[in-house]
Design goal:
The protein has 303 residues and is α/β, with parallel strands linked by helices. It is 33% helix and 10% strand. The chain has two domains: 222 residues, Rossmann fold (3-Layer(aba) Sandwich); 74 residues, no CATH class. It is built from twelve helices and nine strands. The chain is globular.
Length: 303
């Protein structure tokens, strides 16, 4: 499993687009038993799913601990999974940001070609399918993704009812994202979600609850942003934190800050050489979050 783990991490460090659409019917798959904690999640069916245990549940019952994995690099987390397990199956949930498509920029050893997509029918879904289609249709090393798309208004409930797949990929639409992360973890899904998970200080207890749910249920809830693990950023961080090289940070003021970092990321961003069109909700701070919570993450990751 270490090969597919390394490949998945490598794919997340680059970028993506391409798609081959098949039917909109759900794929048959394993059912899962939710890891309950006595609390209901809005929009989540009250009844659980029985039947065959998932790989995550089998590992948990066998005592293969995954405590604190949410804080580890993705390559380390996935490399620790047993090689004898079947291919990982990806699920994309309501892809509002191109980060979800970047996960599929390359074919990944140990990851199934079939990907289930659950989203409302609209511009965000169409843009996501277009990006994956570009990767499938490119001349050099085209991908072979086969997308099963469910585009009904009840896409969230349908995902939970189908209980198909292993790893759910979330991107964009940051308001309410943390509730979905917790609900998915409780249902036995591993989760890869882009930043930010929360956009208000009052949501920090929900973040803690989501991480605790993932730990309790033996699944991974991980930030899929990879810049902080790139060697250039790691070296830069070490240099800045070495007093013999960098010295000490000056005391700045609002008028004359000691450190100045800026980005036009929110205004212009290219994906695979094509300018990215921002959806309308991207400019709503109630949905996207303030600049420091979103784009500021990239600046912090540099040092």
């Amino acid at each position: 499993m270490s090969m597919r783990a390394s490949a998945l991490f490598a794919a997340l460090t680059v970028g993506c687009t391409g798609a081959q659409r098949t039917s909109v019917l759900p794929l048959p798959g394993r059912t899962r038993q939710p890891c309950g904690n006595g609390r209901a999640v809005p929009g989540e069916p009250a009844s659980g799913f029985g039947g065959e245990r998932t790989a995550a549940e089998s590992r948990r019952e066998a005592g293969c601990g995954r405590r604190h994995w949410a804080a580890l690099p993705l390559w380390f987390v996935l490399a620790a999974t047993a090689a004898s397990e079947p291919d990982l199956r990806l699920i994309t949930l309501d892809p509002g940001h191109f980060h979800a498509a970047l996960v599929q920029k390359e074919m990944l050893p140990g990851v199934s070609e079939k990907v289930q997509v659950y989203a409302p029918l609209g511009p965000d879904l169409i843009a996501h399918l277009g990006r994956v289609a570009q990767f499938n249709n490119r001349c050099q090393a085209p991908t072979r993704w086969q997308l099963e798309v469910y585009a009904g208004a009840d896409y969230w409930e349908r995902l939970l009812a189908d209980a198909w797949g292993d790893v759910v990929v979330l991107s964009g639409r940051n308001c309410g994202k943390i509730e979905r992360i917790e609900a998915l973890a409780r249902r036995g899904f591993d989760v890869l979600a882009d930043k930010p998970w929360v956009i208000e200080p009052g949501c920090l207890p929900q973040l803690q609850a989501a991480l605790e749910a993932a730990e309790r249920c033996g699944v991974i809830a991980l930030d899929c942003m990879t810049q902080r693990f790139e060697i250039s950023c790691l070296l830069q961080r070490e240099l800045v934190n070495d007093p013999d090289i960098f010295g000490a940070c000056l005391t700045g003021s609002e008028a004359e800050p000691a450190v100045w970092m800026e980005s036009v990321h929110h205004l212009l961003k290219e994906v695979a050489g094509v300018p990215n069109l921002r959806p309308a909700w991207f400019f709503d701070i109630r949905q996207q979050g303030e600049g420091l919570a979103d784009v500021g993450t990239h600046l912090v990751d540099l040092v």
